Structure formats: structure tokens, C-alpha cells
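2024-03-11 09:14:02 INFO receiving multi-entity request
2024-03-11 09:14:02 INFO entity count = two
2024-03-11 09:14:03 INFO echoing inputs for audit
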Amino acid sequence: MAYLNITELQKHYDNYHALRGINLKIQEGEFIVFVGPSGCGKSTLLRTIAGLESSTGGSIDLDGRDITELASSKRDLAMVFQSYALYPHMTVADNLSFALRLAKEDDAVIKEKVSSVSASLQLDKLLERKPKELSGGQRQRVAIGRAIVRQPKVFLFDEPLSNLDAALRVQMRLELARLHKKLGTTMIYVTHDQVEAMTLADRVVILNAGQIEQVGTPLELYRSPNSRFVAEFIGTPKMNLIKLDGLTREGDMLQLKLMDTLIDFPVARVHGPLPSNATIGIRPEHLTIVSDSGDLTGRVELIEHLGSEAYTHIRLANDQTIIVKAPARTEIKDGEMIQIRVDRDELILFNESDRVFSVVPEEANHE
Amino acid sequence: MKRSITRLLMAPSVILLLVWMVVPLSMTIYFSSINYNLLYPGRNNFVGWMNFEFFVTDPGFWIAISNTLTLLLSVLIITVVLGVALSALIDKPFAGRNVVRVLLISPFFIMPTVNALIWKNMMMNPVYGIFAWISNSLGLEPIDWLSNYPLVSVIIMVSWQWLPFAILVFVTALQSQDTEQKEAAQMDGATGWHIFRYLTIPHLARPIAVVVMIETIFLLAVFAEIYVSTGGGPGYDSTNLAYLIYNQALLQYDVGVASAGGLFAVLLANIVAFFLIRAVGKNLTV
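2024-03-11 09:21:47 INFO inference complete, emitting structure
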């Protein structure tokens, strides 16, 4: 039995079907990240779990208790909002203790809890300040502190870092990861930033148009996506997708025709019916620039030097542009004709309805 | 060089505004110090403080001051309390909300004279007014509002006139309240009342200060409603300072005493403004 169990969750708005049957099991202590493009339903899902939106079907169980119809304050959840939603007319101390005071807890207990939380978040010197006298990062910490004070069963985060500048965002991301290690509480985190998803999550839930596209650890999603949507969504720069010019079976090998080249692909790595044609997906780091006998040829259009590596944009013979990751001090120049080798093990095949019908071998473990 | 040109270009408007203010004020001061009765022209000799003495010792003077302040405070309390309550009530979406909002705001478009006439003839009239009809249909004696409760009647009319202004300001202010804050409070276990008490009221502190200040300016000078409905009476029961001045100037033709009264009104407005700004002005400085 999972800790948080979401079954067939539906959410209809007047003329919009926001959640189309969400099924998800979350274990205690997991850090789950909902990620997806805007309008995919990730925030709606979070708000429905929080009880800020009512569901129109399905159920939510938390720790063996059905909370689908419960008021949000009775669900044992705490939420950190995108705008932090601090109470502007209260001091930091009052913000932190608001829920406890409403629950009529003992003054001494409240004081004790507030001081321990404020100490752990380095807020103890700010307790008498109002939210408008705090910096963005400090407000963020107060918002998190306000959630921690209640000792909820699950923390919900609604894009909490999107209002911070880039440097602070990286720092807060680390603090959140540390916090999760320390508290060990279940956390659900919504973001549209796939880097946040990859770095924070135990498991990532990718949503698309109100449905779960795929659930898995960050590395599973990265290496073996099960649809074109996931493949393109995860990873920067994006996975290269090239439409094949033909697909034939020769014994226990598939022959993938890619312009002038034939690439062999073992049939053992394919499941489901064989489509008549397919698209291959290959990440920039699984393409290598070679001096001869490459699989693809193309002309270098642009090189982006990132210091640690360089992304080479290459125009192929069929006029498509792909990105190849090259070493930092590459000798390649703009306009040069080059050859590219494809790493067979990391090749992914998509059928015509954009689903993956190949598997990545387990042992493909490159040193 | 550049500075003097700007000053030169600003001069006409500044001078015009100055003249606009200084001429009436100095004429009022001048009239208040001479014997100036329209019934006895040509005898405009200097009389010193006599006009002030007359005005202050007028039997209606202290009644008018107390009526002015009663009217001001009652209308302020009614419009702010009811205004906050009604705005909070219509803040949540419901069917026909826009119509309700327009209806709530529309009394503000009605001019004070018409407002007073409507209340006097259609609502409060003891024979065919709506209040009389309600009393009659309940088997009660109809109340003659304007003769028995003249000041209360004026307070009702003026409140009706100014409630829409308060609602307009508060509704706009409520729309700028952060919904995530309310949701956060909801998750913290706050009831609707808690949210109203701890989030909405503090959020409205500044709009309330604005409403109180602006209404004060206009409420100190209420005239049309009194003139049209009660005529300041019976006796001095619904006479305020503005009406007393009018009474001196145009019913007793004594411009000198009326001018002295006008200066008292300026004084009273400044005293009230002083206390008001001390009381609510701190909400404005953020």
C-alpha cells in the first residue's frame, strides 16, 4: 500500500478537461517532481491534492485515509506557493506561528517550534521583520518554514523557485535537497524547469495534456523515454530526431536506412509490431565527430562553446540540423564538412504515433 | 536661464490659482469684520469681532457644530462598516454579480437634491412613503421621519449617497488581494472569518483611510440634502454649520455674520483634518 495513492483522478472545468484520469502511487519519504509544459495540468494536480481545487472524479488516499473530500486544512499537508503568499501584515514570527495559533496550541509549544524552525532556516534574526523587509531568498525560507512548523505528512511545492534569480535558484535548490534529506518527509514539487526536476527528484512524473506521460527516476527518463514527448522534454540540448528513409528486417537485425548509410539494429531490442517507417532519436553526447567512416556527413553551421564542452550544430544532407556534443577545445571550424558516428547502444526508435518501440541495453555503461 | 523660463511659463497658472484662492478668502475676512447686512445697504462700518460674537452666540451655533460632527461620524461609520461588509460579500463570484455591483454603485450617480427628494417623498413620507406602507401593513403607526428624527433622516440619505463610493474603493482594493495568501491561510486552517479578520481587514487599512479622508471633506459641507428635505428643522435639529451659514447669509441677509461663520467652518475643517490625519494618516505612509 502506497503512502499517497491517487486513483483515476479527474478534474473538469466548465469547458476544459484538466486532469484525465491520473493514477499515481507515492511512497513515504519520496521526493516526487511533477514536470511538464505550461497547461499540462501539473499545478491543477497539485492543487487538487492540496484540496484547493475539488476533484470531479477519482480518489486520493493519504496514509490509509481517504482525503478526497476533506477540507485542505484537515489533510495534513503544507504548501509552499509560487508567490510565497506570506501574510504581509504579520511579522516573520507571526507568519510562522499562524497555523499553530489557529489550532489553539499552547503558547510555550508554539514558541518552541517557531524557534527551532527559525534556527534551522537561519531566520532567527529576522523574526520581528515584516515580509516586505526581506529579500527574495529570505521570503522563500519563511514560506518553507511556515510549512515545516506544521509537521505535515506531505510537503507541496508549487514552482517555489521561479521568482528567484538564477544564482539564488541554484542555492535554494541545494537547500531544498538538503532539507529533504534531513526531514525525510514526502515532498511533491511542481516545476516547468526540467533541470530542477532532474536534480531534485527521486522520481519524476511527466505530465502532458492532463495525463501522466511517464513516471520514473531522472536517469530512467533520460535514457529510456517511452515517447517522443518525454524524449524531447528531458535533456538540454534536445535529443536529435531524424526520420529514417527506410526500415527493413534482415534476419535478427533491423536495417535502418539513414540517407546513404545503413545502420544495423538488433531485433532483440525492439518490442511490439514493426512499423513501416520510424524516427530515430539520439542525444548530442551519443554522436561523435570522426575523421572517416562515419554514419552521417554534414556541414558545420555554428559552434557554441560552453567552456566545458562545445555544441556543434550540423546541417545534414537532407537539410536537417542536428546537434553534436564535441570536446571543449575542438578543432572544427564553421563551414567544414565532417563525419559523425552514431552510438548504436543509445539509439531510440519511435514509431509513427511517436511511441518508443526499442529498449536501451542494460549493460550500455560507457566509461 | 532655463530655470527662469520654466518659472515664467508656470507663472500664469500659479498666479491664477493664487488669485482664485486669495481673493475669496480675503473678501470673506474683510466681510466678517464689517457691518454688512443686505437690508441696510451703505452702512458698512468696521465692527471688529462683533460678527464672530453674533455667530457664536447664535442659539443654533453649538447645535450646528454638534450636528455637523454627528453627521460626519455617523456617515463615516455607516459607510465604512457597511462598505467593507458588502464589498467582501460581493467579492466572491456569483451569478449576476456584475448587475449587483452596478446597482450598488449607482446611487453615487444621483445628484444630492434628487437623492433627498426621493427619500423625502417616496421613502419617508408619513402618508404615502414606502416606510409608512411597511409600518401600516405590519399594523404599526407610521413614523414621520423628517419631523421626528430629522438628523437621523439626513444621516440615512447621506449614507445612501456615499456608501457606493466606499464600495467602489473597497471592491477595487479587494480585487488586488493576493489569492495565494488566502489559499495559504486556508491550508493553515483559517476559516472565512479568520481570513477576513487577519488578511482582508489589514489589506483594506489603506483604502479605509482614503475613504475616510475624502468623505470627510465632503461631509463637513453637506447642504443640499438638508435644504431639500428638512430645511434645517424642526428648529435647529438638523442644521449643520453649512446650513447655518446659509441661514445667516440668505435668510437673514447678514453677509457679515455669514462670513464669520464661513471662517469658523474653515477652522472646524482644519481641526477635524488634524485629528483624522493623525488617526488614519499613518496607514498612508508606507
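2024-03-11 09:21:48 INFO post-check: Chain A has two domains: 4-233, 240-350.
2024-03-11 09:21:48 INFO post-check: Residues 240-350 of chain A form a domain with the OB fold (Dihydrolipoamide Acetyltransferase, E2P) fold (CATH 2.40.50.140).
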